[in-house]
Structures
1.
Amino acid sequence: MISENFLDLPPLLSACGTVTLPGSKSISNRILLLSALAQGATEIRDVLLSDDTERMLDGLRTLGVGVEQLDAHVFRVQGCGGNFSVKDAELFLGNAGTAFRPLTAALALSGGHYRLSGVARMHERPIGDLVDALRALGANIDYPGNEGFPPLEIFSATLSDAARVSVRGDVSSQFLTALLMALPLLDRKVTVEVVGDLISKPYIEITLAMMARFGVNVSRDGWRSFTVAAGSRYVSPGAIYVEGDASSASYFLAAGAIGGGPVRIEGVGSNSIQGDVRFADALALMGAQITMGPNWMEARAPLDGKLKAINLDCNHIPDAAMTLAVAALFADGTTTLRNIASWRVKETDRIAAMATELRKVGATVEEGADYIRIAGFGNEDLGFRKTGGALPPNPKSKILNPASGIDTYDDHRMAMCFSLTAFGAEGMRINDPGCVAKTFPDYFAAFAGVTQAVPVIAIDGPSASGKGTVAQRVAEVLGYHFLDSGALYRLLGLAAVQRGIALDAEARLADLAGQIDIRFEGADIWLDGAWVGDELRGESCAAAASKVAALPKVRAALLARQRAFRRAPGLVADGRDMGSVVFPDAVLKIFLTASAEARAERRYKQLMEKGIGANITALLLDIRVRDERDTQRSASPLQQAHGASLLDTTALNIEQAVQEILTRYQAKQR
C-alpha cells in the first residue's frame, strides 16, 4: 500500500523469479561525460533513466552539448572535444556525486565561468581534496559557501604546466575519477599520486575501463599513481552499451538468499567491470548458494536454511555492503562490516543512518568511524522453515515494524536495503519511497515481482450474508489466520458504550480505537482482558458498529490494526474495505451476498438456536434498512470491490459456500 509519503510492504513469504537490471548509474554518467569530451558522436544504449543521470544530461545540454534521445534508454551525444560552446553557465546537479565531481574537473580545465550547486546534502559532501588538486593544475575555483564544500564557482584560468598532482584517496574515489577523466583536456603528460589508502578501488577500475573504450589508456603504478600520456584524446567508439547496475543486483540476490530463491539477475555477471558483483561472494560467505554466468547471477537460500554472520572488509563493495548490513539481521551471529568510512560522505551519513534504522527494527548495533556491527536475530528466531516450498516468517519474528516506519534520509540505497526487512512477520513501512528514483525508479515494482507476500483472501458482503461464518470456516480449512473486521468495529462500539463515549464523537472514538486491547483466540474474542461472547453478536453491538464504522477517522485508526493480522501462512479477512483499502493486493476477493429474505431467515434461526427471541418480519426490515444505510454512507459504502467476484449464497448452505471459495482460491494458485 503506497501513499505520497510512505509505502507499506506486506509481510513476505518467499522470493523467486527473474529481474532484468536497469543500467548502472556509475557507468551511465561516466559514458555520458566521456561522450561529450570526445571527438565524434556516440550512441549510448541501456542508459539508466534516473535523477542522477538526468542531472548529468541537463548539465551537458546547458553546456551546449548536443544530446538526442533516440529511444527510451538510447541517447546520441555529439562530442565537443572538451570545448564546451557555452562558456558561462549555472548548473544545478541535485545530489548526484557522479555528475558533480567529474563535471567540476572537466569545467575547471576547459576554460569558462561556471557556477555549480546542488541540494542541501550535496553542499555537505566534501569536495576540497578535488579542488586542491585542480588548483595545483592552475584552476581558479572559489567556494561561495563553506570552504571545502559545494557550491562552487569556476573561473577561466591560465593553467600551470605541473606534471604531477596529488589527491587524497581515502575520502571518495570520485575525486580520482574526476581528475583522470579531465586530464586528457590538458594535452600533456600528467601523473596523479594518490595520498593515503585508495577506497572503492573497483570504481576506479570502471573509470579506467571506460576511458580505454574512448581511446585513452592510463598507465599506473599499482594504486599509488596514475599517468595520462601527452597527446591523449577521447575518440567516440561509435556505439556503446551500459551494463546493468551491480549495486542494484544486491537487493535481489539478498532476497533470494533470505526468501529461498532462486532469484536470477540478468544484465550483470562474471564478465562485469563493476566491483559490486563481488557482493555475490559475500553472500556465499554467509552460506547462500550462488551461481553465475557472463551476464547473469542467481541466489538461493543456504542448503541448511541458515545464513551465517561474517566479518568482512568491504572496501571493494562500499555501496552493496549496505545490503549486507540488513541481510545480517537474518544471520546467526554478529556481522562486522569494516573499512566503510566512505559511507559517512555519501547521500547521507550511511553508517549513522543504518545504525539508527536497524535499531528501530530491534537490532543491537555498534557503529564506529569506519565500521558497523550487527547482531543477527538468527534463522531459528526468524522462523524460516520449509513449508510447501516457501520459507514463511515466524509470527514471533524479532524484526519489529516501527510505528514511524523506516526513514530513508533521501537516500535511495536506504530505501532499497530496508525493503528486505519485509521478510519479518509484519512487513515494513518505508518512508519517502520515491527517493529510489535516484538510481532505480521502478525498484519497488521489480521487488514485488520476485517476492511472494503472505496471501490474503478478502470476503465482503451485506449484513447477515454469512460472510463471517464462511470466512472463518475457509480459514480453518487452509490453516490461515482469520480477521473478522466487523468484530473490531463491534468491539469499538461496545468499548465506547462501556466508557460512555457518544457513537458520533469521531475524534474520541479514533483515539479509543488505538488504545483498546483486542485479542482473538480462535472463535473467542477478548476486550481489555475480558472475554466477550454473545454480547458482541447482539443487535445493539451490531447497530453501534454500523454507526462507528461510518466515521472516516475511526476507519483510519483501525487500518493498521487490521493489517497486523496478515501473518504467515495466510489470512482470511472478512469485512468492508478488506479487498479495496486494507488488502488491495488480496489474492482472492469475494463479494458474498444473498437475498434479504434468505439473510433474515438465517439470522432468525441463529438467534433462536441461541435462545434469543426474534421476529423475522422485524429482522427483514432491519436488514433492508441497514443495507440502505450501508450502501448510501459516504465512508466506505457497501459495494463490490474492484476485482472481487460475486458469490450469491441464497441457494447454498455454508459448506457449499466454503467449497466454492476454496475452489476459486485454488484456481488463483495455478
Note: The longest strand covers residues 12-20.
2.
Amino acid sequence: MASELYNVIDALSREKGIDPQIVVNAVEDAIVVATRKYYKSQENLRAELDKESGQIRAFAVRTIVEGLDQLEDPLSQITLEDAKRIDPAAEVGGELRTYKPTDVLGRIAAQLAKQVIFQKVREAERDTIYNEYIGRVGEVINATIKRQEGQDVIVDLGKAEGRMPKKEQSRLESFAPGERARVVLVRVEKASKGPQVVVSRAVPELVSHLFQTEVPEIYDNTVVIRAIAREAGERTKIAVMSKDKDVDPVGACVGMKGMRVQSIIRELRGEKIDIIEYHEDPVTFAEKALQPAKVSRVTVLEGQEKHLEVIVDDSQLSLAIGKKGQNVRLAAKLLGWKIDIKSEEEKRQEVEDRMNVVLNQPATPLESVPDLEPGIIEKLVAAGITTVEAVADMTPEQLEEVPGVGPKTVEKISIAVNNYFSSLDAAAGSEEVPLSEDEGSTESEVATESEAATEEAALAGDEAPTEGEAPMEGGGEDSATGPDSGGQSGDLTGLEEEPEAGPDSVEDLVETGQYYEAEVVEGIEDAPPADEAEVTTHERPAGENENVPDEEKPGEQR
C-alpha cells in the first residue's frame, strides 16, 4: 500500500498534468540539497523515497577502487580495504553507501526543500504545456474568455492560458469574461514565467475552419479552398474550386438565400466576405479577384516575377483600388501576384510619352563618324551598338566588355566620337552667327532662290530695246514686275549703294513705264546667261524691218 506522502504526490501530478515520477524526483533532489546544506559536505549525495513507507533516506555514494594508487578523489572514491570494514560484501567497481540522518534537518532545510520542489514541479509543468501545444499550432480551439490585461485578452484553453494580443484581434469584436470563442493557436513561446500560448482571431485559418464547419461540400473535399486573403474586421476574399463539374463552388459556399455565408459573417461580427471562383489562368483570376470592379484588360508584365498590369475604365478606378487600397491589396494577396492598376487615360498618356521618347531620340549610324575605322565599327555592330549616341552613353568599362575591344581601341573610339561631336558643334556655331546691319536685308528686298532663278531666266532672254523698238510697257500695281513683286534679283556685287526708292518716285516711274528698266535692268547687266530650258518666249508675226517683242498688257506676266 502506498504511503500518504506518495498519495499526495500522485494527486498533485494529476492536477498539474505531469508524470508522478517527476514529482518524486523533485522531492529527492530537494532532500539532497537540504542535506548538503546542513552537513556542509561536498560528497556525492543522493536521496531515495520509499513508496511503501514514505520514508526519505539520504546517503553519500563512493566508488570502490583496488588500492591507494588508484584513489584520486577521497570524497567520491574509497579503497577496497576500507570498504570491507564497512561492508564485507564490497567489491571493486561497486558503490558504497553511507547514510546520513535526515531527522536532524531543521526548519531552514525544510523551507529550502520546499522551494526546490516547487521549482522542479513548475518547470515540469511548463515543459508539459509546451510539448502539448507546440504540435497543435494552426489548430482551431474552443476557448473561454477569462479577463482583459491591457490590450491583450487572456483566454482559458483548459490546461493552460492563452494570450490574444491586440494585433491578433478583429476590430469589430469585443468580448466579456466567461464568453466562449473559437480561436486559432498561432505560436507557443518559451518565457521565464512559463510557456506563452498565443491565440488569434485575425488569421485566415479561422475563416477556413468556419467554412469547413458550415459548408458540407468543403468538409467532404468536393469544394476546395485554394486561397484566402483577409484583413480582420474589414473584408475577406476567398477563392474556391469545385472537383465536381456539377457543383457550383460559389453557390455551395453561399448557400440557399445566403444562409451559410451569413452564419460565418455573424461569427466574424459582420466582416464582409467575397467568394470568388478560382482559375488557373492568372489573367482570368485577376479579373474575378478585383470584383466588384469591372476590368477592361489584364496584361502579364513579368511571368517569373509575377507582375500584372490591370487597365480599368476611368469610372471604375476608385472601385478597383478600394478604400485605402484594400480591394487591390487583397486581390494581390489572393493571387500571389503584384498588381498595377491604371485607368484608360493614364495608360494612353503613358503610351504617348513612350512614343514621343522613341520618336525624338536621335539615331546617327556609326558610319557617320569619319575617324572610326571599319573594323571597329564591325565589332560594335556585332555587339548590338549601331548608333553614335549609344557609344557616347557608354562608359569605358562597358566598351571594354565588347568582344575584340581593348583599352587602346576604347581610346580611339573616344577620340573619334569627340571629334565628331566637336565638328557638329562648330558647324552649328557658324550657322548661328548674326549678319551685320550693312549686310542685312529685309524680306521685301531679297527674293527666294526659286523666284530669283525664274526672273533671271526671263530677263536673260530679252535684249535691251534698240532704235526702232518699242519700249517695254509696265503694268499697274497688279503687274508681275510691279512694286508688289518680290524685288530685284541678280548679282549685287560692285553696284553703288543708292537710296531706297520712295512712294513718289515709284509712282512717277509707273506712269512713265520706266520702273522696270530703272530697278531691274541695271541690276542684271552682268548676270550670266540663263539656261535655255528656263526661258519662255512669245512670238508673233513681224512686219518688214520690224523686230518688236510682244507687248504686255497691264497686269499680264510674261
Note: Residues 508 and 515 are 8 Å apart (CA to CA).
3.
Amino acid sequence: MQINKLSDWLPTTNKEVKIRGWEELDVILFSGDAYVDHPSFGPAVIGRILESYGLKVAIVPQPSVNDDLQDFTKLGIPKLFFGVTGGCMDPMVSNYTASKKRRDKDAYTPNGDKGFRPDYATSVYSSILKDKFPDVPVLIGGIEASLRRVTHYDYWSDKLMPSILETSKADMLVYGMGEQPLREVVELLQKGVPFSSLRTIKQTAFLVNKEENIPKNKNWDDVEIYSHDVCLRNKKKFASNFKVIEQESNKLSARRIFQGIKDRKLVINPPFPTMLEEEIDASFDLPYTRLPHPKYNKRGPIPAFEMIKFSINIHRGCFGGCSFCTISAHQGKFIASRSQESILKEVDKVANMPDFKGYLSDIGGPSANMYKMKGKVQSICDNCVAPSCISPVICSNLDTSHKPLTKLYQAVDKHPKVKKSFIGSGIRHDMLVPEFNKNADPKELDDYTEELMKNHTSGRLKVAPEHTSDPVLKLMRKPSFKYFHKFKERFDRINIKNNLKLQLIPYFISNHPACEVEDMANLAAETKEMGFQLEQVQGFTPTPMTVATVIYYSGFHPYTLKPTKTPKSKKEKDEQHRFFFWYKKENKDWIRKTLNKVGRNDLANLLVPEKEKSSWKSIKPAAVKNTFDDAIPSRHSRRKTKHKSRNKRR
C-alpha cells in the first residue's frame, strides 16, 4: 500500500502541524537522525508511543546548530516537555572512526551526508533548549543519554565526564528502552503532577541539590557510589563504581543509585522489569509508515534505512554481556520477544510494500538467535547479579531452545509474497555447539543450524568469535576459540551435505584490553591455518558503559580491581591491527622481525615462512592505516555494516 499523505508522518514543520488542525503541541522531539518513521528508529518509536497516549507530538530532525537556531523555536513551546535524543547511535561513534578521524558518511542522514549531527548532540540540543526556554522541562533519552548517565570515560576527548545530565542541563533522563517510563511520565503529567515532582519513576535519572530531600520508596534499597570528584582523583575507585552500575542495571530488583557531582546529587532509579510480550507487541504494532519523511525525497536515500527497509526486528536485549558491547547496557540482558502473530503482521505489511521484491533482508535482533529465550525458573533470575547468562558457561537455568525460532522462520516463509527470508544479524555460534551448550538437545541445535544455512543465509553466515586467545576471550566474556572450531566443523558438514557453498564470516577485534602482540600473532596464525584471510575487521573503540572501556581508562578490571594492560598508543594499536593482514607483502618483513624480537620464531614461520622472505619488500607500518581508520568501532553499530572475509578452502 503506497502511503502518500503528509499527515501520515509526525509533523516536522508548522505547516504540517496546521495540516493536522492542531493549534499547540504537547511534546516536541529533537533528534540527531533524519526522521524515518520505522520501528527500528528510536525517535519514531518514542513519537508514536506518545501519540498513542493521545498527545500532539512533533519532531524536529537534525536541527541546525550553526545559524540563528530557528529550528529550536519554530514550533513554539510544548505543553508538557521537550524530548531530546542524539539518535540511534552515539553521535561520537557516528561522527568518528576508531582512530578519531571524521567519518566520510553519516548513515542516518540522506545521501549519507556528514555535518548534520553535532558532536555530543544530546548535550548540544538540550543546552540550547534550556537557554531559550529555561522554564520548559527537557527530557533526554536514547543510547547517548543511556550510556552517559553516570561518570564515564569519553574516548574522543580523552576525559572523564560527569553524568550527561550535568553537561546537557536537562531535567530528566530516561535510560534504556523508553516505552515504560514514558507511559508513567505522561500519566502523572496528565494528572497535574508538576514535572519537577517526578522523582520516583523507574528507569529515570535526575539531579538534585545535595541538601534536597529525596522521596523515599519502601520497595527500593539505595546504594551510593564514589562521587564524580573522587573518580577524577582515583581511577581505581572509578573502576569499582562500574561493578555496582552494571549489576544494578541487570537486576530485576535493583537498588536506587546515588552519586555526588559537585554540589548536587545524581539519582538513578531502578529499571522497569523486562517488557511483556503484549507490551513489546504494542510498540511494534503502532501505525508506522515504515518510510523516511517525504521532505528527504530529493536529498537522496538514507543508508541506515535502506539497510533495514525489508527487515524485521523480533526481540530486544542480549544476555551475552560482552565486555566491549553496549547492547545490554541499553536494552538490558533479559530478552523481550515479540509474539509470532505480531511479527507475521509486520511481515505482511512489508510484503505489501510496492517495491518489495520478495526478499526479507533480516529476521533478527541484537543477537539473531536469542528469540524467546529466558530463565526456566524465574525466581532464580530474580536473584541473579551475573552480567552474562552464557559466560563463562551457559547458565543451567537458561532455556536455550531454538524451536520457537525455527518455527518462526518457517511461518514467515509460508507468506505467499516472501520468496526468501535472510538472517542478516549476527548469530551466537557458541549456543549452537553441544560441547558448549551442554543442556540443549544436539539434534535441535543441528535442526536450527541446518534451517539457518539452507534457507536463510545469503552466501555468508556472520559469527563473532572476536579473538583466539583464551585470556582475552575470558575478559571479553566470550567462550574459548575451540568452540568456533567445533562450530566450523558442523558448518562445513552441513555445507557439504547440502552442497550449499556458503562462506563463514568471523568477526575479530584487535587491541582489546589484555591483548598482547603475541595474542594477535596467534590469532593470525590460527585463522590462517583454518583457511581465512581476514579483509575487514575492527579495532577496539572505548564507548561509555562497558567493562572494556573502564579498563582502558583506569587500568583496572572493575570486578577484580586487578591491573589490566590495554594497548593505548597509536603505534601499539596499528601494530596489533597489522597482524590481521599477514598475507599482504608490505607486512611480511615487519611481522617476522617483530615476532623474532619477542622470541616467537615459531609464529613467524607459521605466518611468513622463511623461504618467502627474499621476495618481500619492507613498507612502513602505515600501510594498513586506512583499513583501521574505517573499522566499525562498536557492536551497536557493527551489525548494520557489512564485514568481509574469504575462506580459501571453500
Note: Residues 613-650 have pLDDT under 50 and may be disordered.
